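Hey team,

Filing this mostly as a record. A colleague (T.K.) asked me to run one chain through the structure pipeline before their review meeting, and I want the input and output archived in the tracker in case anyone asks later how it was produced. No errors, nothing strange. Just documentation.

Input sequence:
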Amino acid sequence: MFKRLGHLALVVGVLSLSGAQLWAQAATSSDDVDPDAVATLNKMGAYLRTLKAFQVEALITRDDVLDNGQVVQNDEKVNLLARVPDRMRVEITSPKKHRFYFYDGKNFTIFAALANFYAIAPAPDTLGKLGDDLYEKYDIELPLQDLFLWGTPGARNGDITSAFDVGPSEVGGVTCEQYAFRERGLDWQIWIQLGDYPLPRKLVLSTLTDEARPQYSSTLNWNLAPSFDEEAFVFDPPKDAQKIVIAKANTSGGDSK
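Output structure:
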């Protein structure tokens, strides 16, 4: 499901006794897949595919592993507006960057506000295809890409080797159920909203292929009835902005400006 594991983040918490018992139980049967957990994940994905438009504000924390093995934590905010199947606007803010992505079903535009550079590239015709296209061609990671993959063959649920229900939880005042999954080289957890709107509210990924065990976490705040017009997905460059060419993958390290 999660194809890029380079950016991950640390989540610190205290387990209750019942939570610790659940984790211990899971550790003794790490290859078991609870069909109910997978069914809930599939239900969430099917629900996401019914959404015609939505806005998500995400608080993201990720670990970057330095060359000497030390882990450095970075935070960023993502504001994503999507109209399915072929419109998207993303704003990414952090102490180090302020970036915008625009997608209109034909072209993808990236605008680095701090550097005042922008670039435009041809894009596939759906949001579901966009993330892989950007990564393969330009080494650009589309934020929250899995929101467009859950409930499709691209979700790769068949790669799950362990799945279990951790138990009830709460994210931002929203009642959720917490689930834990394992794939080859990756442990991940997801908090799914209970009730009629099974939305993902929190996600934590832990890579197992790096001895530093870097992690990534995102907390999601949803708006299922956003107000927007077609201009929201159109980039109007500032008068002094400089147009550049997006570097191809394996040429300059991708989305690093």
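Quick notes for T.K.: The mean pLDDT is 87. The first strand starts at residue 53 and ends at 65.
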